[in-house]
Amino acid sequence: KQWYQRRVANTAGNDVLLPVCPDFSRLGSEHCGFETVVIPQGWWMVADIDSTTDEMEVRKAYKEKLYTHYRSPNKMRFVYPVILKWNLDAAGNRVKGEIAMPLPEEHQSNPPPSKSDKVRIEEWKETKVYLRPYGGHRGDEEFKRQFENVRTAVSKAGLSYKENEEWEAGYTYLRYGRQRVEAMVVDNGSRI
Length: 192
What we know:
Blueprint (H helix, E strand, L loop, with lengths): L1 H11 L12 E4 L6 E5 L2 E8 L5 H17 L10 E7 L5 E9 L2 H4 L11 E5 L2 E10 L4 H16 L8 E6 L8 E8 L6
Antiparallel strand pairs: 1-2, 2-7, 3-5, 3-6, 4-5, 4-8, 7-9, 8-9
């Protein structure tokens, strides 16, 4: 832990800028098999990633795009979760990806502009997602099954979701053991 705090102090220049989580409203669910979460409106740093991106490529994309070209130059603290947004074709294959992270609260009212064509700043509207948490790695076959499980549970509950999108949320520092990841589908009424 001391190493991590020292590293944060060195990259951010201020010991109080430790990682934070934004206020996502976890509504639970009156139905079995998924949670309902509302992601508040806010500013996000976003970069494109390849649809075949594996775990190591996600780490590389984060470091080379979000960290190097936006977080570090603007001395921003880390905010969990990192979201991977995937657009799906009609057969359910991932065809386009994005990696995104919310800006820290102190930058929400006046986000610094991106000076790189690799990172864009987007304002996301309030978004409702349905999810299943998983304690493992993104590449695990069991995690991949969570997307089908959440779709089935949401459909059984009589709710609808965007069939051409799936999201992943990661809450654990990328290089540390087992991860807390979430398989998400976006409520059909939500707009980004």
